[in-house]
């Protein structure tokens, strides 16, 4: 009994077939890294949840920076909520009786931001980490501007306020540096 020889396998050579295969592999999430070395998550893997192989390459010290920020924001918020008058006195070296409500509102806003920071400590999602850094940078920039305007209105420049302004500039620069490094990608090769 002689069997018929199988016909030779046909190879797909067309450009549309190759593009179709690449799209299928991308949708399924198999075997694909971009130029940055990051593995793109497929729709299926996004629905199934996080996996360790989809982690983002993080800059050195990013998690420590977010942890320090979360702790600092929480401490400042609790201090503003519990001791509003003393917090104002430390920075501006003046006593004003009717600021406790506004300082407590400031503490509530800081506590909300600290919750975002605590979420950024534990997440693996690159976009959440970027938004955490961006909200932190916005806070530092706004606090710098508000404190500067307040000092101009008061007409004095206490040492504690100078220290606060300098620390906000440094914290803003560090946060923006991490944001830039996390968000930048290498240019695609053509």
From TrEMBL:
Under the heading InterPro entries, the entry gives: TP53I11
Q: Where in the cell is it found?
A: Membrane
Where is the major localization of this protein? Answer: membrane
Alphabetically sorted, this entry's keywords are: Membrane, Phosphoprotein, Transmembrane, Transmembrane helix
Q: Where are the transmembrane segments?
A: 62-83, 103-121, 133-154, 160-181
Q: What topology in the membrane does the UniProt record assign?
A: Multi-pass membrane protein
Task: Note the Pfam families from the entry.
Answer: p53-inducible11 (PF14936)
Q: Which GO terms describe its cellular component?
A: membrane
Instruction: List the PANTHER family.
Output: TUMOR PROTEIN P53-INDUCIBLE PROTEIN 11
Name of the protein this chain belongs to? Tumor protein p53-inducible protein 11
Look up and give the organism this protein is from. Oncorhynchus tshawytscha
């Amino acid at each position: 009994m002689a069997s018929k020889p199988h016909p030779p396998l046909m190879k797909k050579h067309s450009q549309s077939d190759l593009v179709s295969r690449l799209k299928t592999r991308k949708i399924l999430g198999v075997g694909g890294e971009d130029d940055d070395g990051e593995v793109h998550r497929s729709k299926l893997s996004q629905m199934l949840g996080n996996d360790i192989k989809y982690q983002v390459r993080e800059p050195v010290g990013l998690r420590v920076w977010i942890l320090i920020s979360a702790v600092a924001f929480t401490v400042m918020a609790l201090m503003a909520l519990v001791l509003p008058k003393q917090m104002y006195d430390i920075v501006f070296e003046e006593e004003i009786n009717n600021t406790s409500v506004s300082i407590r509102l400031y503490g509530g806003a800081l506590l909300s931001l600290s919750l975002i920071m605590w979420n950024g400590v534990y997440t693996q999602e690159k976009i959440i980490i970027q938004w955490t850094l961006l909200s932190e940078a916005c806070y530092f920039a706004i606090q710098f501007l508000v404190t500067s305007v307040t000092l101009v209105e008061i007409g004095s420049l206490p040492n504690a306020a100078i220290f606060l302004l300098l620390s906000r500039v440094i914290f803003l620069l560090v946060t923006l540096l991490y944001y830039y490094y996390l968000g930048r990608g290498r240019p695609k090769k053509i």
